[in-house]
Amino acid sequence: LASDEMVTAIRILKPAAAGTSAFVKLGARRYLVISIAMAAARLVVDDGAVAEAAIAVGACSAVARRLAGVEAALLGLPADEALAGAVLAAPIDELSPIGDVRGSAEYRLDAAREIVVRAVAGAIGHAAGDKVAA
Fold it and tell me: Is the pTM here over 0.85, yes or no?
């Protein structure tokens, strides 16, 4: 924005609110702590298969990133526990984590993939979403 402009509204299209979602955070505490990693998943399931997928990971890059490779890997698959394999095999090139006192870059990548699996499972109702990962 320019110095004389301000945001007065944020509009979200109704299709972006379709489906079910889950959020998983990996951190030392549930609140008031910087996350090691966090993941959000929104899935639209049609006739038992993933019709739409929106997956994002935070705290593993300068800003939260959508994982296009994971989203593409999930499309058309049956909405069941087997989605975990697709998440684990999909590319996550969008992430560029740093290493710090909370975890190395390699740990964050591994953790991000695991909490995306948990968020996807939560979004299809096979696990509780909005939980702190253990």
Answer: no
